[in-house]
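Work Package 4 report. The design task specified in the project plan requires that, given a folded chain encoded as structure tokens, an amino acid be chosen for each position. We show below one input record used in the internal validation round.
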């Protein structure tokens, strides 16, 4: 029986391996290279698929409806991926489908490799049972977190597809998408030109955090740092999805509910944009989520210090959310002071180390005069700015509107979701122009209102340390961006996870109701459909420049 299941898993995994090795044959072109790559990759895919099939079969016998809803969510994300690939295929200058198709000289090697993977997979499966692999820490981790791992894998595919489109060197200007410095960070993370040409001190040691990860991935791509940066960005976006799933699963003990929340988060506008665009922000979101999970699991102080140092090193203002979360969850002023002092001790040495490894990468922290560059992003707070900022935080970060199309100082049309008032221009914001977008906004506001009512109803009946931490984090970034930022959406990775987790905890009381689970599933499917419209507009606007 196990051999039949493994044979089915081997066959089922062939399309995945074909696409993955099809991408890798740009780097591994000879027979001696492509056969072992195909063998190893397809063996891993086969065994993982075999494991998933076993879990699905066992789960269906005991929780058939849960399994059906989980499968529906997974297939919806696969269809979302296929739809995006089909959409992008209409723009061959931006997305080359042939990059994932085997060259004739590597196809035979691929077939030999996957054929050899079948007996190897069978032998490894027998050995794992004989050596009681099921008791290992790795197996137990995979077994208890399989739903989150599968979801993260699916979203990695989505984010990598988009990363390989919107980070190409043809986008040779900053501010094209959402005021993001994607061209700068494509250089800084994906090439030898790592200098910050804006001369800013606010990212004091981001290079020693991100570039080593890109370098490690590039080792498997024969030194291609550019695609290494694409993969690291997409992997970080997928990690955020997994961490949201893990937090919800650990706090509610409901894996299906965790999958639905993570699915909603994964297709949100913020995740789709910054899980694929090379920038700082997805790394900030991941660092914040890691810090939250470390607090949840009550990990030692040194792990919190490391996570805090990472947040500060990427962008100095983001140390604030770790301080807020630490104080609200631990509720210990002495420990918070200890945390702050230890983090403070390491900041300057890490800044020095960064500029020692990468000379003249950017000014040192104490060169505060360079902060004058940021003055162009500082604005007067107004009621209208508060209104628009609130709409971006609560609505646009999840449900994509029809974006602003701005023709200004670069040859691309700028795709922004809001624009601060400056010179002769007024404060602008993107709006919902479709029936689906407006309907999703109405339903989302009902979801949010329900969460708020349930939170207030249970405010004295449950442990609210994390919800209060999320609320204060949201308020902190609201206050910060009342003064700072041209397109509010650029910073959405800082609050989208907090809003998502706050609502996930608020909805706990109804999380096991089938009507609510199905409502979340349907909403997520329609959200993916709506948000794909933003990708279509991004593709068309760029096509006008590069056709």
């Amino acid at each position: 029986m196990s051999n039949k299941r493994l044979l089915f898993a081997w066959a089922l995994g062939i399309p995945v391996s074909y696409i993955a090795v099809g991408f890798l044959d740009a780097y591994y072109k000879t027979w001696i290279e492509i056969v072992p790559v195909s063998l190893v990759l397809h063996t891993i895919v086969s065994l993982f698929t075999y494991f998933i099939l076993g879990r699905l079969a066992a789960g269906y016998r005991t929780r058939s409806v849960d399994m059906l809803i989980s499968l529906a969510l997974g297939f919806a994300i696969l269809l979302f991926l296929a739809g995006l690939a089909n959409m992008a295929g209409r723009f061959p200058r931006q997305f080359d489908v042939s990059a994932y198709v085997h060259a004739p000289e590597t196809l035979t090697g691929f077939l030999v490799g996957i054929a050899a993977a079948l007996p190897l997979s069978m032998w490894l499966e027998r050995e794992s049972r004989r050596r009681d692999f099921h008791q290992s820490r790795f197996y137990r981790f995979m077994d208890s977190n399989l739903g989150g791992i599968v979801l993260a894998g699916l979203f990695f595919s989505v984010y990598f597809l988009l990363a390989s489109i919107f980070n190409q060197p043809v986008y040779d200007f900053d501010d094209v998408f959402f005021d993001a410095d994607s061209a700068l960070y494509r250089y800084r993370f994906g090439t030898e030109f790592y200098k910050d040409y804006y001369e800013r001190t606010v990212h004091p040691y981001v290079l020693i955090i991100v570039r080593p990860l890109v370098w490690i991935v590039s080792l498997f791509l024969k030194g291609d740092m550019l695609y290494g940066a694409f993969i690291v960005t997409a992997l970080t976006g997928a990690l955020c999805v997994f961490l949201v799933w893990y937090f919800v699963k650990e706090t509610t003990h409901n894996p299906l509910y965790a999958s639905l929340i993570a699915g909603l988060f994964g297709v949100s506008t913020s995740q789709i944009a910054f899980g694929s665009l090379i920038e700082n922000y997805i790394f900030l979101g991941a660092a914040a989520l890691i810090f939250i999970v470390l607090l949840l699991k009550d990990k030692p102080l040194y792990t919190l210090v490391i996570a805090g140092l990472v947040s500060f090193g990427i962008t100095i203002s983001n140390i604030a959310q770790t301080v807020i979360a630490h104080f609200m969850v631990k509720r210990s002023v002495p420990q918070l002071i200890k945390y702050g002092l230890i983090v403070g001790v390491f900041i300057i040495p890490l800044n020095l180390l960064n500029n020692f490894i990468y000379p003249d990468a950017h000014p040192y922290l104490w060169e505060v005069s360079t902060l004058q560059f940021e003055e162009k992003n500082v604005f007067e707070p107004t009621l209208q700015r508060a209104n628009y900022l609130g709409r971006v935080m609560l609505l646009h970060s999840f449900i994509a509107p029809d974006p602003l199309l701005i023709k200004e100082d670069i040859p691309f049309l700028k795709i922004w979701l809001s624009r601060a008032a400056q010179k002769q221009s007024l404060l602008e914001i993107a709006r919902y122009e479709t029936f689906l977008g407006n309907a999703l906004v109405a339903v989302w506001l009902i979801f949010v209102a329900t969460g708020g009512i349930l939170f207030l109803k249970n405010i004295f009946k449950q442990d609210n340390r994390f919800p209060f931490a999320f609320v204060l984090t949201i308020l902190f970034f609201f206050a910060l961006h009342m003064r700072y930022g041209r397109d509010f959406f650029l910073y959405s990775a800082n609050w989208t996870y907090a809003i998502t987790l706050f609502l996930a905890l608020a909805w706990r009381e109804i999380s096991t109701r089938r009507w609510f689970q199905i409502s979340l599933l349907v909403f997520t499917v329609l959200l993916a459909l709506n948000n794909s419209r933003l990708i279509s507009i991004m593709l068309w606007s760029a096509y006008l420049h590069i056709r």
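The mean pLDDT is 91. Validation will be extended to a larger panel in the next phase.
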